[in-house]
Amino acid sequence: MAIYLDCNATNPIEPRVREEIVRVFNSVYGNAGSPHEFGEQAKQLVSLAREQITQVAGSRRHEIVFTSGATESNNLAILGAAAHGKETGKMHLVSSMIEHKAVLEPLQALRRQGFEVTLIPPQRTGQIDPDELLHAVRDDTLLVSVMQVNNETGIIQPIDAIANGLMQSDCLLHVDAAQGFAKQLEPLRNPRIDLISISGHKIHGPQGIGALIARRKQGQIPPIAPLTYGGGQEFGLRPGTLPVPLIAGFGLAAQLAATELDQRREHCLMIRKTVLAWAQSVDGKIHGEQKATMPHVVNLSIPGFTADELIERFHGLIAVSDGAACTTICTTPSHVLSAMGIREPELSGAIRLSWSHMTNHEELKQKLLAAQRNLGR
């Protein structure tokens, strides 16, 4: 069986998190909105999860809006701000060319509604130049949206510099933190960030649960409107019965990730050394500035092979992807690597290897050695 190296797409669930989810499924079945003791028990678990998440993000419990994941959170942050933009005449949006499709497609939807969208290209390193982005912000800019960590390359974006540079602007600042939440702590704690999208399964929690952190200023939530209606849950921004077992698992996953951040990072760095040595042995070309890359991701091309050929050669050995899992049904090259200036044949040959603290290092070394033989290197 292949070793799993696609953790940027989704992570295996942490055993302690799985145990908590099963426990809650079995014993806490009340609706968190009900007034009796069963509902109160569920409500207490939801409250605990909010607290666990706030401890990671440096926010407050009443700023956590539970959603189905970062994609929904991104849509709520971007599309939800449209009404305020139209009311105030702020019809300009700023983002980057390397955002996830869950940001780029809502931006395109607003463009069709008459908004102007400015997309900043990345540098060859894979990072956005914060000065170039800040220069694009105008008096009529409604929202700036920049990811914390790129999902395809693992490149860390200069969120702190962007947030600090917007201190004198009243535009909304949204960060898609699906790939960085609970893996980097300080950047998201910058109080200038208004909206943060996060997802449970990226931190070894369950799939199907995430949140939008909507920071309040002077007691008021950011001016975003709900996308769906019917019940008024989650401060009126996201109606529907809360999935208490998933929320409990998400909260515990966030707490564990933050508490064990250093030891998880050390394990990932150890694996990284092995992966980089293997990449060199197969003449791999690494994409992006490695000093600015998270310790659990490598994006590379291997001369003489397309991504599809590599995935086939690696079948049964290492499970890797050719980019964002959400866009693998599309045959077009990576928009992220294209924006970075990566050209053919490297562009169509790029694959992503991503691992976690749960990846077995010894097994990985054996599988990589076999994969190297399959390439004839």
Explain how this protein is built.
This protein is α/β, with parallel strands linked by helices. It has two domains: 3-12 and 261-374, Alpha-Beta Complex (Aspartate Aminotransferase, domain 1), CATH 3.90.1150.10; 15-258, Type I PLP-dependent aspartate aminotransferase-like (Major domain) (Aspartate Aminotransferase, domain 2), CATH 3.40.640.10. 37% of the residues lie in helices and 13% in strands. The chain has twelve helices and twelve strands. It has helices at 15-27, 37-57, 70-79, 82-88, 101-112, 130-136, 159-165, 244-259, 261-281, 307-313, 335-339, 361-374; strands at 3-4, 64-67, 92-96, 116-120, 141-145, 172-176, 195-199, 210-214, 285-286, 297-301, 318-319, 350-354. The strands form three sheets. The protein has a seven-stranded mixed β-sheet with strand order 2-8-7-6-5-3-4, sandwiched between helices. A three-stranded antiparallel β-sheet has the order 9-10-12. Strands 1-11 form a two-stranded parallel ribbon. The radius of gyration is 21 Å and the shape is globular. The two termini are 22 Å apart. The model has no long low-confidence stretch (mean pLDDT 95).
